[in-house]
Each structure stands twice: as structure tokens, then as C-alpha cells.
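Hello,

Following up on my earlier ticket. Below are the two sequence lines again, exactly as submitted.
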Amino acid sequence: LLTPLAQTPAGRAAQYAATMSIMEYNGAAVIAMAGKGCVAMASDKRYGIRNQTMGCQMQKVFQMNDSTLVGMTGLATDQQTLEQKFRFRSNMYRLREERDMNPKAFANMVSSLLYERRFGPYFCEPVVAGLCDGDKPFLSGMDLLGAQVFTDDFMVAGDCTEALYGLCESLYRPDLPPDELFEVLAQCLLSGVDRDCLAGWGAVVHVLTPQGLTTRHLKGRMD
Amino acid sequence: MSGMDCLIGFTGKDFAILAADGNAARSIMVYSQSEDKILQLDSHKLLAVGGDAADCIQEPDFFKKNMDLYAMRNGVALSTQAAANYMRGEKSTNLRKKMSVVDMLLAGYDEADGPSLYFLDYLASMQKLDKAAHGYGGFFVNSLLDAHWRADLSEAEALDLLECCFAEIKKRFMVSMPKFTIKVVDANGVRIVDRATK
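Thanks for your patience. The regenerated structure is below:
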């Protein structure tokens, strides 16, 4: 809906810039997938501000403990603030309970932390992936208010979710071992972000098994 | 959002360099063209700031005083990484209270880590980068830095790269920026350097 001021290309650009969603200010893409006794999470590495890319080494997936990964999309400042808050809560739990927070409890904690800010939210949509009871995959995704949805195949978040859903739906197969899961996830993310100008510039894939975490950095199209 | 403030920074072989334009302006009027936008935080840290004029004085000053207090209490100055994280933390706490519009480039030299550059947005997002620029000038300069920056630049090469950037701004940016301040931080500390002459 163009105002009278936005009749010129410059005016339209200014209006678009003024009404751009806060969730697309920085740009990100995260996918989590469940395999046989393992989970994997991948993200892009772009650090950008609106249409300008400033860096290509940004970390968006964080390991909270031996069995939990959390990946975040949305506003970069809130991603970084929330990573610190999640780590604090996770570590305090560890100190008090003398055991790690399991992924389900962690996801519930994230959800209520986000909902605490119901009327002035953190502009961040996290994805939690982990292994419950040692080797049972757990996936949870939520919106910026903390509304959780649980799946047993894959979870996507970011600016280009439509593209990512299509790829995951076609390429995903249940009960994949870690190496094949890595391949499928890498292909889904790299192809999906090709359709989004706000995400991409490299990718990183983390595969979490009961034995530990394997991280691989991928070369992708730098555009 | 430091639109009209052009801040450029990158690391070299064993130093980090920051450049900032000298314009102090509001709307169409330029008040001064020899403004120094690069603040010295301590013996081995420089902070280039851009954005709202008042916030650019108040917020860095607040950070500097607190960092000085830390050094007095603990007998050791903050490392560059610690300083960057401290500043990001303060900015993110203030983000939904009394946000100040200050974009920053923090350049520092640590004995353990060598030179480093931290890019801080006014919204408190932070990245450690090799090369970075704030402001509209950044639109013109980022690709030049991508093309010509190397990890082992000498100081002379760094100044030549900056001249390349300044020439592009002079040619293609509609705001005139005749003067740039350039400061370098290395193992010996902070110093102001002159622009490279042809």
C-alpha cells in the first residue's frame, strides 16, 4: 500500500525499509533434523544488516550441554542476548541439580522465558534439538512468543522457511544414520538459502550423537 | 544508525587501524569538518563511534569510565574481547529501556591475541570481524575491503587501502568528506597517523 510519498523508486524503497519486519533485519536460516539415535542442526553464517552483509562467520547454533543444541533466528542482538540467558539458566540448573537439563526441560524453559516477555518480546525464533534418555531424538521449534511445536522429523526457522520446508519434505527420510543425516541436512540448507538474499554465505552443520558433537563448516555460494 | 558517519576499520599484520570522517553535521548544515570520532579507551584500545551526536559522547564516555574503574579495582585492564562483550552487554540491557543510537568499531591489541576488531551495531549485535565499515560510506567501501584486504597487510599497505576507500567515497558518495582521522593501535599503543600521500 503506497503512500503518496512513495511514488518514486526511492520513495518506495524508503517505505519498504521503514516497514521491513524486525525479524528480517539480520536474516538467518536454521534447520534441525532427527535421525537414528542422533539429531543434527544446521545454520547459515551470514551476519548482515538489512540488505548489507557485514560478516560470514556468525554462530547461530549453540551447544547448551552434552545432549542439547539450540539454534536461533531473528534479530541478531536478541539471538546473542538469549544465548547468554539460556547458557546461564542451563548452567545454574547443572549446579543446583547436579545433572544436565534434558532437552525437553530446556525447550520448556526457553518457551517460558520467551513468554515472560509476552508484550515486549525478544525477536527471536529458536529451534531446540537434543537427545532424551541418551539416544531418543527430540525436536522443538517455537515462535517469538514461545509457542512450541514438536516434530519427529525436521524443524525449520528463519526468513526462507517456505523454501526450507519444500526441500526438507522431499529429501528427508526417517532413521538416517549420522553421516547420511549430515548429507541430507547440508543439501537442504545450502539449496534452501539460495532462494533467500538474507541468509546464506556459508553453512555449518552440527551432528549430535550419544558419543558427542561433530561440527562441519560448509562452503556455499557467497551471495 | 550512523548514516552520515563513515567509520572504517580493519586489522593488519600486527596492528588494527580505524578511520573516521571528520564531519559534524545536522540536516543540510555542516558544523565542523575536523571532528574526531575515534576515542581512545585505554592504552591499547580505540573506539570509533557514529550515530546520534549526543549519544556518541555520553555512551562511550560511560564505558570508558567503567573500564577505568575495573582496571583500578582489579589491577589489570580488560582485554579487547572482554571490553567488546561488556559494551554489548550494556547496550543490550539498555536496548528496551533507554537505547542510545551509537554504532561502534572497537579496535584493540592484546599481547595474547594480537590485533582484533569488533563491530557493534546500535542494536547491540556484535561480531568479531577482520574488516568492517559503518554508515553510508560503508556501502561504497565494503566491497573494496573484500577485494584488497589481506591478513598480513603492512601499515603502508593499510594506508594505501584506506586511500582507495577515501577516493571511492569522494567520487561516488554525495556527501563531501574532505577530512578523515586515522588511528592505529599496535603493541606499542595508540597513535594518530597521517593519510598516505601519493
